[in-house]
Amino acid sequence: MKQILQGKTGILILSAAAGLVVAVAAWKLFDLGTRLEVNAAVREIARNGSVAKARTTLELLDNRAFVLEKLSEAVEDDSHDVRGKSNLLSTLTMFNQPRALRRALDSKSVTTQRAACSLLWGDPELKTRCGEIALAWLKDPGADDRASAASICGHLDLGEAQPVLLEIVARDPTTASEQVLFMRALAGIKDPKPPALVERLFGIASSEGMDKDIRGIALESLQRIKEGPRDRVLELSIGILADANASPILRSKAALGLREFPEDRAWQALEAVLLSEGGRDEILQRNCLYALGQMNPADPALARRYVDRLRQLLVDRRVYGNPYYAIRVDVATALAALYARDPITLDIMGDYLVDEDPKDKEHLVRQEAWLTLWTLTGTRLPDLPEPELFMTPPQPFPDPLQAREYFFRRAHYRPGITMKQSAMVAKIAGDLPRMQKTRQQYQSLRAQILEQWRIEEEARKARAAGEGPSPGSVGPEPPKEEEKGPGEEGKPN
Questions:
Q1: pTM here?
Q2: pLDDT per residue over 329-355, tens digit each?
Q3: Cis omega before residue 300 (within 30°)?
Q4: What tens digit of pLDDT does each residue of 401-418 get?
Q5: DSSP per residue over 391-448, as a string?
């Protein structure tokens, strides 16, 4: 060993060892490990990679001054794009550096100004400066993320931007980024839109040879027009919805747009697709049901007539028996919101309690059926975990028109149902034997429930006619238990 160390090989070994010692010392002295971690995390944020993870890394490092230094340097580095710089500026704000964001509006780097503008345009105090940046950004044909500039100009209602926006939509987009720019520019053009643009949109939306995404953008823009050829837009939307060969996404856009046309032609078109059983598109059918539920005519009498028609549709076998479990969930939530105390509601919800759709992994149909039955009957089931949660069911809406907002919302988003209640029902919904028992319990109480509903409805009508007391809004009374004979005290209903 001594001979080896005295030779050339030994000199090399000793030199390498010395170098390693120096490297380790330098690593510790200058904290190079932390610096490498910071640089890597900042790059990840700037390239819009795993931003949340990178921010957590920076948060946990014990060298805040170096972190802020590197973030600030990266914000001014023009090798990063606008979106990356927006991430960096947001990160600085998270690190309690709000002034960095405002200073960036006057940075020497144009992309830094634009990134700051994208984050600050909603601040009334900075509207003028952000408007200047956004307009210059929009006018730059080669700018990165020009679609954001179009959106900001539209939100700020910049008159100077209108000619530029019109110029953008005069050309057919050919790439994904151009499509986004086209869409944002359309949204930013003021109403009433110029007649020439409206005709162009009709041409695009009607053309079967046009890209389906562009057709969809044009159709949505036409549907948003408040002043103009509304009847033509209605007929175009109905035609696209009825076209079984059209793109499913395009047909869904047509369906959702028809909720803004609360009249019989739109209703009939949506209903026809909803009730179709041949070659069904279940997601499209769900969008049709949603559009029907959201039709809100200005005339209250017509609005109530539409709510009544919706209620009849919900108990149509072709709707409540739809193979798509999400539609069955919608049926349950809407019948609860409408306070639909009818015999068929009991039957449908009873079937839903034991629904076994393998795609419904969270048993949402069972959950909503359980909560709907409880909402309508107030039944206090035996052997229910934490029964104190379910002593008082939700109050009915005084007017069905007030319920529209909640037709298709899960129960825990509706007044009177808490997250704790929903969580408990979610827990028991996966227990099929329990759900089967619950169904049997409701079936055994069916006659009592219906009689209770009849009595309460007669009382309601009497109050409305001024013939009885008006005790205020009350929820459902639970069905009364039958008198039990000796030895039957423990017998469940």
A1: 0.80
A2: 999 999 999 999 999 999 999 999 999
A3: no
A4: 999 999 999 877 888 899
A5: SSPPPPPSSGGGGGGGTTS-GGGSTT--HHHHHHHHHHHT-HHHHHHHHHHHHHTHHH
